[in-house]
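Recap for those who missed Tuesday's class. We walked through two folding examples back to back. For each one, the amino acid string is listed first and its predicted structure tokens come directly after. Nothing is annotated here on purpose, so try labeling regions yourself before you check the end of the notes.
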Amino acid sequence: MSDQMPNAQPQFLTVGEGEAARDIAIIVRSAQAGGDAPALVWLSGYRSDMSGTKAVELDGLAAELGLACIRLDYSGHGLSGGSFSDGTISRWLEEALAVIRHVSPERVILVGSSMGGWIALRLAQELARQGGPKLVGMVLIAPAPDFTSELIEPNLKAKERKSLAERGYFEERSQYSPEPNIYTKALIEDGHENRVLDGIIETGCPVHILQGMKDADVPHAHAMKLVEHLPADDVVLTFIRDGDHRLSRPGDIALLLSAVKGILASSADRKMPA
């Protein structure tokens, strides 16, 4: 699409100082619609980046509707600098927050996939605590909040525990890449500091969760557990009976874009005078 070209070149934002400094790649689509329509913010999953199918389709929706769209690669991912093995939830959260503050939209809708769902929920907490753009909605795709403590640690094999203790990490075969997934001791320990499923999560906005029932990575019971921790919010949970973890098929993408449009409509309705 020709209208996507001017925004296709990444910018780089340095986050952190000294040895912790890393250059974070961002692609920002400027709003065309005028007014105060919210910006869409894409948050990728573990080892995913902003050039994936869902991210590109979300940007295409923004182009179609004249909305701003912000995408980033976490450090150690995609076009960004930094080492993947240094990555933790706190580090990637810091980067996402820095990017949002740098672009400084007035209102945002967070769209998070897998680990990006966890980052989105933590962003909601940090924006509420620190101030910043108003969060008007969230769309979470196969969200994996607390996956280190909820999904990885309980299933560690003896050899993986030994590798963590002796080498500081363990490897696991990936069905999405020839390179194995690497889980570090730092990632797992930091995960405890970022837990969200240990009390009520108050996002203050509507939340739409899309979850495949044939997801081999994040069981659909995990999405139901998340809903239990969102009692104060307007939550819609959509199960895709034959959906896998990626939810990148045309029908899955249609559901994602429809969910985003639904959040956009509800945010517009809430701004209308009574």
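Example two. Treat it independently of the first, because the proteins are unrelated.
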Amino acid sequence: MAVTDTPARIRAAFAEAGVTGWLHALDIDSGAQLGAGADQLVCTASVHKLCLLVTLHQLAATGALDLAEPVECPPVGRTAGPTGLAAMLDPVRMSVRDVAYLMMAVSDNAAADLLLGRVGLDAVNHTTQRLGLGGTHAVHTFGELFATIRRDAGPGGARALTDPHVITRLRALDPARTNRSTPRDMTRLLGAVWRDEACTPEHGAAIRRILGLQVWPHRMASGFPFDDVHVAGKTGSLPTVRNEVGVVEYPDGGRYAVAVFTRTANTAATLPAADAVIGTAARIAVDALRAP
């Protein structure tokens, strides 16, 4: 299948799954690329934790941050979430690097905000600007992001998020008012990490290791069900939003950065087809880039 035919196939896959989607894929070594809405501004949700992870390692590389530094996490005041520190009940003490692991592997919101408290949003935005990611900007911590959802949902609380009219007023779903990026920016960032351009080789290797430890197999990885193909990535989710960015590595040395962002009109929290199409679309794109 010619690369020029691929965007139509990707859009058809999105439509069949009931989502609106945007994608960019990049051959990290040759520079070959393709996209479907690659420059669309999108809500990053937890995908933005990748920008924070890179920031941490850039600061560590300059000596401004010690990744072994201990971090205290008391139970009071933790950012809410279903995983990691956010779901724990007792005081926790661990290193910066281990907090970063929880932030990425299980998308721990409390861990992310502990780290943002250490480095600040301005440092994250400086990192993305320095790397030339013009469409990428962090507006909120994760606690602040969820606070806007609670305020915008109103007195109905979480149950109101099943109402499409409530969904339309959530600032967290408006790229102009929340943490945002574009699919092309995210593959550019991943390419820089995999080529050791975002950090020193030591820190680039550490970032790649952590991305490879993500536990969620139901999105991008579902498109590559092979023992010898490795997928490393970061998901992001909000009401009606399902995202993942990652790198697919083949045993022949091929390395492909893929960013997929989706929205659906269906407000259900569980939509297996919407999750799976991220893997389907990524596979279509990578197959096209690998075609002779």
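Answers for example two:
The longest strand covers residues 230-238.
The two ends are 9 Å apart (CA to CA).
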